[in-house]
Amino acid sequence: MHSLVPLDRRLAEALPEGTLFAVGGRVRDEVRSVVEGAAAAGKDLDYVVTGVTLDDLARLLRPLGRIDVVGAAFAVVKLTTDGETADLAVPRRDRSTGVGHREFDVESGPHVTLEEDLGRRDFRMNMLARALPSGRIVDPYGGEADIRARRIDLLTPAAFVEDPLRMLRAAQFAARFAYAPSPALMEAMRAGAPLVSTVSAERVHDEFTKLFSRSAKPSIGLEILREGGVLAHLWPELLEGVGVEQNEWHAFDVWGHSLATADAAGPKNLTVRLAALLHDVAKPRTKAGPHFYRHESVGAEMARAMLERFRFPKATVETATHLVRQHMYSADPTLSDAGVRRFIRRIGPSNIEHMFALRHADIAGSGLPKRGEANEAFEARVRAELERQPAFSVRDLAIRGDDVIATIVARGDAPATYRGDERVGAALRWLFEQVTDKPERNERSLLLQLLEQYLTRASRGARA
Length: 464
What we know:
Layout: H1 6-14, E1 20-23, H2 25-35, E2 46-49, H3 54-61, E3 66-70, E4 76-81, E5 84-89, E6 92-96, E7 104-108, H4 114-119, E8 129-131, E9 137-138, H5 143-148, E10 151-152, H6 158-162, H7 165-177, E11 180-181, H8 183-192, H9 201-214, H10 218-227, H11 236-239, H12 254-265, H13 270-278, H14 283-286, E12 287-288, E13 291-292, H15 295-309, H16 314-326, H17 337-347, H18 352-364, H19 374-388, H20 401-410, H21 422-437, H22 444-463
Parallel strand pairs: 2-5, 10-11
Antiparallel strand pairs: 1-2, 1-8, 3-4, 4-5, 6-7, 8-9, 12-13
């Protein structure tokens, strides 16, 4: 449903009548809200202003706030006012001079029509504008019809040649909106698939992030990329799972299971969803009959390479690969208390809920009914142990490295100038194991006694 935002009114008052148009995802989503009953997204502030030059546009906007002309070739003015930033452009037409989104001759100005400006956009559903303040929809290319048909379509097959990233955009839009690509779009994608290799890693990363963090079923987009030949140029490792059958605990092949697990992980946590997609990526390479020996370890390294290829943040890469490496843990509710603490230590307290979310997605992605409540019982024990807050790392001990150094010096095992060596780390690790077995030992005076015992045995061993 259309509604004016405050800036719409201010712009309409500052600009010549009949020249201001909202464009972009805002207009598309407003139409979707009417057609589908979908909630309109946040109002991105993108506008086209017709009938004026770039200089005139800048002059007219200057009284409203700070303006910056960003890339005069693209005829865009950024206006910052009342804490908001809007992009206002004069209409432009592009003529592709090569492959890629930067290889264009650009013309802009009052001689270019709004229809020409809309026609250079990626898909018909995005070739919409709304006149402001009247609210009249401008739809020269049938974008509203595509929205009503829940379809993604191209105006021309050259769209993918002009900017191959649009193939990824088609996939993530299809997944986010549950729209189907037209046959013409898929034909153009298959023809242009190799060109995706010319897209920068950062731009691919951005589209993958939208696919996994904004869609209920990223599998829709991944299947489109597979069928369109694009995925083979980005993450061919995933395609190794197509047709690779699993054991009786899975209803799908490795590819189908990976997609179902990614869907089940949900969009709230990008890192968990990436781990869900990649947790079994090494199964085709480790298959031995019905078994996949060490697939979690091999898969962690494959996942790292795949995520680093498209510049995912270091923290995301580290956590996702850790989850992949550890996802085969045994959820044994009869494990000893010390065993539970060692599990927490291995996974890391901050990763526990991520690991449990991955396990639940893995079970849901099997395509078969859940077997028993062992996972839930084990998780309850882990959470109870976390609430008790015992020491889960060396940093949680009641003594520090300086205490170990002082003790070693006081015993005469090192000179007063001693600042530490491998003995300090070894002692702290040994003390941590004692605390893991019995958390009540994590008390300073008792740890110092245990340290004396440890150093005495170590010293005797060194002299033996």
